[in-house]
Amino acid sequence: MKYTSSILISTDYCGKIFKTAFQAFSVRKMEEKLILFVCVKNSARSQMAEAFFNHFNDDPRFKAMSAGTEPAEEIDSLARKVMEEIGISLEGQYPKLYTEEMADKAYIVITMGCLDKCPYTPPEKTWDWGLEDPYGKPVEKYREVRDEIKRRVLKLIEDLKAGKSRDEIIGRKRLFTL
Q1: Which among 39, 48, 82, 83 is annotated as catalytic?
Q2: Is residue 178 predicted with pLDDT exceeding 60?
Q3: Of 78, 118, 153, 170, which one is the catalytic site residue?
Q4: Residue 39 catalytic?
Q5: Separation CA 70–CA 129 (nearest Å)
Q6: Active site includes 14?
Q7: How far, in Å, CA of 25 to CA of 6, rounded?
Q8: pLDDT grade, residue 173 (50/70/90)?
Q9: Residue 132 has pLDDT above 60, yes or no
Q10: Which of 56, 60, 66, 95 could make an S-S bridge to 37, C-beta 3.0–4.6 Å?
Q11: Which phi and psi angles does 86 have, rounded to 5°?
Q12: Catalytic residue among 114, 131, 156, 157
């Protein structure tokens, strides 16, 4: 009887080790899905969204990046300031040019309110958040936009972790199901 229970414990223990190793291997083999945040200058809204997503997301299947259709030379100083106020740094981030290749690689493309200024937005995976550009406005507007972006990013992360499809997340209706 002791021998049987010890085998069961060993089998259970080996099963846990195998499961853990398999999960680690699967995560590494799994392709990372890019969430791409886009605005015109890539200096405020999209940079904040990228920082929030990468700060709060702990799911290795997803990673965020931001880009702009006419990228600025540097990140807006007020955007940096309002993010630092809540303990999130934009250090290491910089404005990048939005390209068709980025859009093609992205799982979801989220425009910040500049859909009409984006040269390439695949309709099946593009979602426009319609956020006001705070550039040139008082710091209070930056905080308001920052807080709205944080709220939306947290909801996006929640939906991704819950396994919702891209269509469900961006509000697209399928015409048919397979």
Answers
A1: 39
A2: no
A3: 118
A4: yes
A5: 19
A6: no
A7: 28
A8: low
A9: yes
A10: 66
A11: -110, 15
A12: 114
